[in-house]
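User: I'm preparing a small set of examples for a lab meeting where we compare how different chains pack in three dimensions. I only have the primary sequence for this one, and I'd like the structure in C-alpha cell form so I can line it up with the others. Please keep the answer compact; I'll paste it straight into my notes.
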Amino acid sequence: MQTSEIKLLRGTLFNAVDYGRDAGTGGGEGTGPVHRRDRGSDLEVMRADGALEVNNEHDGIEVHSPIDWEPRSSIPISALTELPNDKSFIERSSSNIVGEVIDKPRACASLNRRGRIIFAAIIVLIIVAVVGAVTGTVLSRKPQNSEILPSNLAAVNWTTAANATIYVVFSQETDGSLIAHRQEAGNWTKVNISHIFQDTGSSLGIRASTPLAAAAISNPVNMSSLGVNELSLFYLTPTNTITQIVTRDGSLREWVWGDVGPHSDVKLSAAPGSQMSAAWRRCRDAASGCGGGTLSLTFEDEYQNYLVANSTYNWTATVASSRLAANSSMALISMDYGSASDYLWGFYDTNGVMGSAWEDFQKGNWWWTNLGRNIMYGIPMKTGQGFAAASFHGRTHAFVAALFPDGSVSVKYYDPGLDDWHPEAKLKLANESTETVARFSAIAMTADARLYGMVNSSIIQELRMDQTDPYTFHHVGDIV
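Assistant: Understood. Below is the C-alpha cell output for the 480-residue chain.
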C-alpha cells in the first residue's frame, strides 16, 4: 500500500470503544470533479483532487491515492458571551433614581432645596457603590466562557490483567476539568486528570466541551501477546489540535503525554466542530501483516472529509470518505470477520443519514457496500457526539445508537445470519413497567455493549445490553 503523510491544519464528544474484552468501515469528492462513465457497464470512475472513486451500481469501492495537504490557518472556536455594559446600566439606573427623588419632593418635605440635593447625591452614591460591588463580584466569579457547554462522553472496558476488568467513563466538568470515572467491583471512583497534570507543572490545555475518544490496548485471550497494556484518551485544545494522553496504571493516577499533540512530533488538527472516535483493532496472526494490532482515531477536517489515523503508520491520516456532514457524529468498532485480523467499521453522518465505511487491513483501503449505506435516516444536526456503537456476540454483530435532540435514543443492529440490519427502534429498558429511559445529552459505549448517557449535565447512567434482545437494556446504576 502506498502511504504518504498528510499535513493537516495546525490549530484546529469521543465516543470510543475498547476491545479489551471479547464481547463480542468513501469516495473522494472535490471541486470540479471530472467524471467518466463506461455506459457499457455499471462502473463509474471519478477522479477529483488526486482521489479515485469507483462506484458500482450494486456495491462500491473507493480507493484513495495519497493527497497532499497545504497548511492553512485554523479558525479558533470562541464561545464567549459578552456581559451587559455596566457603565450604561449604572447611568440608566442612576438617572431614574435621581429623577424619582426630584419629582417627588414630598418625600423630603422637611428639607430645603440644598438639603434635598445633598440627600439625592448621597442616595445616588450609595446605589452606585452597591451596583459596582455586585458587578465586581459577578465578574470575579464568572468564568471566561460564561456559557456552560455540555460535556461529551467516552467509555471503555479495560482488561488490565487476566480476569481483571475495569470500566472507565470520561467526561468534562463545567470548569473544564477532565474527569475519569473508574469502576471496579461495582464501585465508582472519580479521578480529576486535569489536577494530576497540574500537580506535575503541566496543563492539559483542553477545550471546553471537547469531543472525547478513548480506546484500550489489551488482549484477554492472550495477554502475553502484547508487550504493552495501556489506555489512550484523545481530546482537542482550544485551537482544535488533537492531543493524546496515555496511562498504564489501572488506578488512573499516572498519565503521560502520548504520540499525538503539542508535546509530540505528530501534529494533527481537526475542523472546528469535529467529533472523534477511537478503537483498538485486534490481530490474531502478526505474520499476516496486521502486526500486533492497531490503535485508530477518526476525525473530520475542514473539507468535511472523514479521516482515519492509526498508530501503525505513525499516525498518518487517510481519507476514508468525503461524504461527511459538518460536525458529523462518529463511532468506530472492531469486527471479527474470521480472518487473521479484525476489521474496523466506522459510522458517520452524511447530511441526515447514517453511513459507514470499513477497512481492509491487508490493503489499507476503506470502502463501502450497500450494507453500510443508509443505516438510519433523519439524523439531526448536533454540536456534540450523537453516535455510539459496539460489536457483540464474539464481535460478529454490530450495534449502533443515535441520540436525538429530545434526548431519546434510536438503535439498530446488524445480524450476520441475515447479512442485514434489524429494523430501527427506540432503546427500551427491561423493566418498562417501573422504569423509563432517561433523556440524554450525550452517549458513549464500551466494547462489551454497556451504554452510558449523560443526564442533566451531572449524572451518568449506566445501561447494559440484553444480548438476547439488543433493543433492550438493563439499568445498572448511576454515576454521580
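A couple of notes for your slides: The longest strand covers residues 164-172. The CA atoms of residues 408 and 439 lie 6 Å apart.

User: Perfect, thanks.
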